[in-house]
């Protein structure tokens, strides 16, 4: 049996903490927090960043109690208008709290919906003996700290934990001897072991590789020690020869992978070959391509889409708008198109690269121009796509590492008949303040969707943009 170099998958979706359930007398009566049978009762205080990341966060703390400072409600009021996902999260949370408190006061502990859930309240008191606004300055973050510190004084028998996606706020809390944690639900624990989508198999018997070249398929038991994940790719090596292969989940067999070409774009390494194979495969409806800058993620996805233009009504290439220095696009001059052009320029660069492979007088060059003019190919901010029904569309989402898990789920849930969705990005290049390599939507998708027959993933390792770009990725 051949030996395999495997890539371990990360285990995610952990909760912040667990302990034995507290028995409550009624689902509608007020609940007084107390000690659990296992020991100290925990009360989690959530800040605004957690709610904007996941509006259902209050439901994810098992039997423990959850509270939010009144300042959080004030901040959410500023986020409720708009079309971004943070605006949706704010509105959904406000509706949930409104329904939860329909017959009760928010200053009282209200039972959360669900079996063995804790209680919820809004913290009104900020009169703590250790005033964070005096120490750090008068701002909302420090009022949130005061609410948590006040609760700690009021409930000396309980462990008060501030939960926030803001690293600096966690550090300030700890400086005040207040326990602070990140929101862990949906977070991937082992990014280094994130599913790569392919393996190298050494010492493959030469007759097996010959069979792959002759028949195009072979029994995976001749090569692998265990059943591989659906749509997994392999580099098979024997003493004198090698072959690229793909595990067809429907046929339960290994298939040889040839080097395809997509509208003039040819793969330059094995991983790019695997990516093109998945992108051009009509049976695979969901693809993710992960890799550092210059590995060809967006270029391969766009070229594959144009190659299959006759199979889809439209091609959408979208990306989230993440302004520099986290400033709103309103700080830029001009109309909305002028404001957004700087963020869409990398996508246009890839399109121009594909187009410039052909002479200006060629039909291929003109075809791309016509697709843009007739809006057969549309490059647009991701916010302009939300809420639309994605039927008969090849949909590419670039820079997907800047999305939350909920955003990724929302996009995929919009898919209609004959739609293919492709996510590209680099999980180590996060541009938003409250996401990291463990909590972003691309990492979450790769970890949760692996081994599904409709999904394929590949991690691109080698930069192909230029030797200078490779120097930056490797040495700087």
Report on the structure:
There is one protein chain. With 476 residues, the protein is α/β, with parallel strands linked by helices. It folds into 3 domains: 1-12 and 198-249, no CATH class; 41-181, 5'-nuclease (Rossmann fold, 3-Layer(aba) Sandwich), CATH 3.40.50.1010; 259-475, Rossmann fold (3-Layer(aba) Sandwich), CATH 3.40.50. The protein is built from 14 helices and 18 strands. The protein has helices spanning 48-53, 70-79, 85-100, 132-136, 140-154, 167-175, 206-215, 270-280, 297-307, 336-355, 363-373, 405-413, 441-449, 467-475, and strands at residues 3-5, 41-46, 65-69, 110-111, 119-123, 158-163, 179-181, 198-202, 217-218, 233-237, 242-248, 253-256, 286-291, 314-319, 377-381, 393-397, 420-425, 455-460. Strands 1-8-10-11-12-9 form a 6-stranded mixed sheet, sandwiched between helices. It has a 6-stranded mixed sheet with strand order 4-5-3-2-6-7. A 6-stranded parallel sheet has the order 15-14-16-17-13-18, sandwiched between helices. Strand 16, helix 12 (405-413) and strand 17 form a beta-alpha-beta unit. It is elongated. Residues 1-28 have a biased composition (Polar residues). Residues 42-171 form the PIN domain. Residues 1-34 are annotated as: Disordered.
Amino-to-carboxy terminus distance: 41 Å
Rounded mean pLDDT is: 84
Number of spatially distinct domains: 3
Number of strands: 18
Biggest sheet: strands side by side, in what order? Answer: 1-8-10-11-12-9
Shape label: elongated
Determine the structural class based on helices, strands and strand pairing: alpha/beta
Residue share in helix: 25-40%
So, the CATH homologous superfamily of the largest domain? P-loop containing nucleotide triphosphate hydrolases
* Biggest sheet character: 6 strands, mixed
Relative strand content: 15-25%
Q: Per CATH, what is the topology of the largest domain?
A: Rossmann fold
Number of helices: 14
Low-confidence stretches: 6-38, 323-332
């Amino acid at each position: 049996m051949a030996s395999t170099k495997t890539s371990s998958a990360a285990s995610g979706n952990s909760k912040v903490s667990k302990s034995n359930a507290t028995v409550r007398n009624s689902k509608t009566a007020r609940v007084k927090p107390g000690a659990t049978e296992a020991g100290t009762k925990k009360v989690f205080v959530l800040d605004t960043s957690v709610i904007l990341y996941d509006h259902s966060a209050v439901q994810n703390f098992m039997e423990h109690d959850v509270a939010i400072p009144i300042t959080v409600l004030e901040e959410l009021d500023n986020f409720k208008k708009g079309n971004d996902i943070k605006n949706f999260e704010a509105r959904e949370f406000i509706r949930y709290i409104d329904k939860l408190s329909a017959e009760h006061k928010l200053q009282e502990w209200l039972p959360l919906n669900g079996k063995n859930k804790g209680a919820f309240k809004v913290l009104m008191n900020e009169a703590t003996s250790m005033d964070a606004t005096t120490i750090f300055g008068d701002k909302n973050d420090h009022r949130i700290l005061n609410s948590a510190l006040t609760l700690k004084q009021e409930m000396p028998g309980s462990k008060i934990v501030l939960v926030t996606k803001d690293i600096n706020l966690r550090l300030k809390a700890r400086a005040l001897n207040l326990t602070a944690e990140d929101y862990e639900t949906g977070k991937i624990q082992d990014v280094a072991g994130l599913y790569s989508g392919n393996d190298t198999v050494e010492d493959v018997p030469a007759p097996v590789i010959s069979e792959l070249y002759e028949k195009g398929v072979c029994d995976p038991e001749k090569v692998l020690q265990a059943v591989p994940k659906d749509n997994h790719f392999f580099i098979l090596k024997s003493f004198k020869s090698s072959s690229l292969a793909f595990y067809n989940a429907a046929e339960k067999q290994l298939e040889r992978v040839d080097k395809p070409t997509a509208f003039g774009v040819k793969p330059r390494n094995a991983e790019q070959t695997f990516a093109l194979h998945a992108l051009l495969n009509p049976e695979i409806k969901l693809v993710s391509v992960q890799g550092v800058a210059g590995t060809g993620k967006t270029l391969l996805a766009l070229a594959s889409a144009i190659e299959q233009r006759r199979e889809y009504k439209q091609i959408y290439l979208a990306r989230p708008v993440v302004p520099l220095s986290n400033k709103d696009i309103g700080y830029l001059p001009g109309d909305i198109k002028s404001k957004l052009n700087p963020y869409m320029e990398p996508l246009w660069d890839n399109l121009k690269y594909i187009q410039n492979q052909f002479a200006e007088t060629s039909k291929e060059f003109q075809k791309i121009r016509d697709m843009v003019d007739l809006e057969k190919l549309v490059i647009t901010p991701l916010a302009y796509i939300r809420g639309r029904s994605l039927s008969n569309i090849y949909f590419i989402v670039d820079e997907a590492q800047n999305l939350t898990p909920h955003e990724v789920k929302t996009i995929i849930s919009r898919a209609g008949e004959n739609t293919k969705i492709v996510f590209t990005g680099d999980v180590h290049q996060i541009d938003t303040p409250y996401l990291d390599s463990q909590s972003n939507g691309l990492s979450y998708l790769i970890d949760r969707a692996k081994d599904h027959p409709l999904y394929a993933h590949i991690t691109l390792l080698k930069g192909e943009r230029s030797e200078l770009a490779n120097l930056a990725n490797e040495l700087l």
